[in-house]
Design brief:
With 217 residues, the chain is α/β, with parallel strands linked by helices. Helix 1 crosses helix 4.
């Protein structure tokens, strides 16, 4: 008997390496509005709470809301055209998803990335593998609120006792707990083991094989 029948995945830092494209679009927006650019390491620390928060963290301290709105729009204009420039699956993760699918585990993605990006990236890199993909929309609260997870679980018809949430950050740990789900945190993503340790993740996986065993049992 499988340990879990439903696996709900974060996107950025968990199943896709997206950091360079996020950095490039943020820096395009900052540069276009006359602000200093950010390093890859800075952007790594800024991600996890959606694009609006990424822009807020990347902008100079004290930037007013109207200017943040303009930066946000400039970011999206660039990202729509460049979200596939450097983005790629983590090694072994597409094969992991195919194995889970073959084992009849139902799969979903829940991400604070905008909805159009989530659906496009899943279709591009994981065609036919995910049953549900949920991204940021104005109607549903972003993670760590559980609303997006609940939306995905409803679409899957998931039993919470048979579902697990997989991510790579403290936001994902909080999301899983807010949704009342077990969590598995991968250690290949945007947060280091040292950054995650204070949050006490229930389970971790260092590679796709370990993650497969943690999900299937």
């Amino acid at each position: 008997m499988r340990k879990y029948d439903f696996a709900i995945f974060d996107l950025d830092g968990t199943i896709l390496y997206t950091l360079e494209d996020l950095k490039n679009s943020l820096n395009h927006a900052l540069r276009s509005h006359g602000y200093p650019e950010r390093t890859l390491e800075e952007v790594r620390r800024f991600v996890g709470n959606g694009v609006r928060k990424l822009v807020e963290r990347g902008a100079p301290a004290g930037t007013d809301s109207a200017e943040l709105d303009r930066l946000y729009e400039t970011f999206h204009e660039h990202y729509r055209a460049h979200d596939l420039d450097n983005t790629r699956p983590y090694e072994g993760v597409p094969e992991l998803m195919a194995r889970l699918k073959a084992t009849e585990v139902r799969l979903a993605v829940v991400s604070n990335k905008v909805d159009y990006g989530v659906k496009a990236l899943c279709a591009r890199f994981y065609p036919g593998l995910f049953d549900v993909a949920v991204g940021e929309t104005p109607e549903v609260a972003k993670k760590p609120a559980p609303d997006m997870v609940f939306k995905a679980m409803a679409a899957l018809g998931a039993d919470p006792a048979r579902a697990v949430y997989i991510g790579d950050s403290e936001v994902d740990i909080q999301t899983a707990r807010n949704a009342g789900l077990d969590e598995i945190i991968v250690t290949w993503g945007f947060r280091s083991h040292e950054e995650l340790a204070p949050y006490g993740p229930k389970a971790t996986a260092a590679d796709p094989e370990a993650l497969y065993k943690a999900i299937v049992g």
